[in-house]
Design a protein that fits this description.
Length: 362
Amino acid sequence: MYQLTFLDKVPEHAILHEAGEIARNRGHEGVTKFVNGVLRNVIRKGVPKIEDITDETTRIAVETSLPTWLTKRWITQFGSEKTREIGLSFMEAPSQSLRVNENKVTVAELQAELSAQGIETERNPYIPEALMMEKGSITETQAYHNGRCTIQDESSMLVAHALQLEDGLRVLDACSAPGGKTTHIGEKMHNTGEIIALDIHPHKTKLVDKAAKRLDLTNITTKELDARKATEQFEATSFDRILVDAPCTGFGVLRRKPDIKYSKTEADIVNLAQIQKAILAEVSTLLKENGILVYSTCTIDQQENRGVVEAFLQTHPEFQLERVQLPEKMQAYVKADYLELVPTDIGSDGFFIASFRKKLIK
């Protein structure tokens, strides 16, 4: 079916023959007749036209290959046209972006080094330390092995900016694996201060350790711990900054992980929102007065994003939402003080960031 519909260089007779042979080898003669019957019917009649589907939700779901329940949900949240645009964007090939470790090399120097090796990059227009891959592979280069760059989506790079980092701070990364944001924090603090990186799984804390070692960051300490039990291990008001990059449905990264839309359900959204609220409530007591707590997800579903933010503020009056601090060219995308980035905005993964400040007690 895919060949008949999308691959115009493969002759119909070749498709029929090959499909028949596969059916015969994998099944039996009855399967072969069934496959041939379906394909010949499509050749005679063609496939139904999407625009002939009268129900709007079903039409958008079919056109964008999104589950009907998710399409209906997003139409409520974003409207029909934006849901369609988001869905179509998830069918595009994802781009690859690099984060330059500016403690070791400038962006211009790395770009020139890679160019000499036939690897073409472009400056990211929104994030100063980001490069977009145009041609070539980075993982086998000395620049990558020596920690001069990291593969990271540009939307994820915004988190370190939102934390408003300074040298010498004590930072808690409550859900750190695989370490992209953790190491970015380490770089932004110029390998000073202390970053405690938590993850519930030991094999994932090892990923953070490996990333820190490659980048020569010595200010990161990993700990196997469920963030919902963080107060059992750390003293109250002992961190200057806290990042909760929470476990989520991942609906912002469907370009890279399309299986998510088939494996996740509405029940998962509800359950994850409860986990997100629990983590925020637990770690909030660990933040110093006037400290900053950043909440981020790689989903675009509003129940996990603005819904969690509103619930946290209602139950934690000692915190106030403040405008997310991002690179200058990203400020236009900050609405209602938080960032709700969808793939059609800058071509990145979908992402959400909210920033809270703990009020000073007078």
